[in-house]
Amino acid sequence: MKKLILSIALCCAATSFFAQNADPAQLVNDGKAALEAKNYQEAYTKFSTYLTQTNNQDSVIAYNCGVCADKIKKPAEALKYFDIAVQKKYNLANAYIGKVSALKDLKKNDEYIATLKEGLEVNPGNKTLTKLYATYYVNQGIMAQKAKKMDAAEEAFKQAIAIQADNVNALNSLGSLYYSKGANTMKTDVEKAKVEFKEAKEYLGKLIPLLSVDKPAQKKMMDNAKTMLNFIDSQLK
Asked: Are 228 and 176 in contact (CB under 8 A)?
């Protein structure tokens, strides 16, 4: 048993030695070939070995290594390498997208939001980062609704719209929320209900032009919105 353990130890040491002394250019070439062939595990191994040898100085390879780590479900490693790309300002928007994806997989919620905000400050108007940031607040609103925290839900949906004005899920949620408020308030305060219906109408009116009848989910959303608008108009006469 001792000989077996010694043999395994020697093999590991030899592997480490050869990895540390492999030709850097060859590691990069082999990594690129593996990436081209979509052999992400092999590409990750080659790229990460190269980066270790070169003290993580190559931003391009760091980014590619992050992509490979993401593909093979290694979010901690993906975070490390995408962060290197971010710090070195390489392919910055996509590096931020990779970084926030890794943070989401790692369930690092506070860092996820902070990085989205930072990414948009550096890459203003980036559609993917904008959508991810808005979607976070939409999901927060949905969770608040399920917990019957309607004020928190309303605030979250409004935050989503502040980030992405044409976010159909946020617009639909706010329209539906104010519609429900108005329907409930009608029982006790007609004038207040009319104010809430007008709020609902504003959001639903912005929503409908953004929807497509060719997409089943959006077609259903559109039909529901039109039904609500018809009822609202009947109450505002």
From this structure: yes
